[in-house]
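Could someone model iron/sulfur cluster with this protein?
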Amino acid sequence: MDLQTIAEMEGTVAEKCMELAEILELTEPVSEEVLYAAIYDSNYARNLLNCRKQPVFLQHLLANPPAVPAEKKVEKLDASSQVALVQKMGEALWNWGKVGFTRVDDETNQKRLAACMSCPNLSDPPEALIYKMAAVAASNKQICTECGCLISRKTRLPSESCPSPHPTEPDVTRWGDPIH
Ligand code: SF4
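Reply:
Sure, complex below.
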């Protein structure tokens, strides 16, 4: 399955790559290989979750997903295979993801989003990244040019911070958090 096909699937494999990234508190979608490996190899999925807070180990795992037999991959996501994929995600990963999966509260998210929406560093994504964002609604595709992150994901993750100082308050970021 090529990237173009993934992009045209409107929120199936591509969406799951984004959702898994959210669970792992990443702002970029995981690769298709990582997604399939996490679905079909419970040890690998468990290791990903266990290493969420350890960037070096997590990056190593993300760069080295175990191979998944070709016959296990969903080549064409018709309605029934989509259901099967989502069910498999639920069995293998989703319930674990709920455990300890944290997002900031709505108030914090809205405050962050408001700051981003009025920030000069907000930009449309480069052409090269658009294929990765097939699962993201058009209005949510904007990125921060300071860090390259997808804003609609970044603002929801507790581990994220704004990389830019506030224009009138040098001690805090544009999100209003103290600069250490
Ligand atoms: S994260 Fe900060 S620098 Fe980036 S767009 Fe949002 S407010 Fe601007």
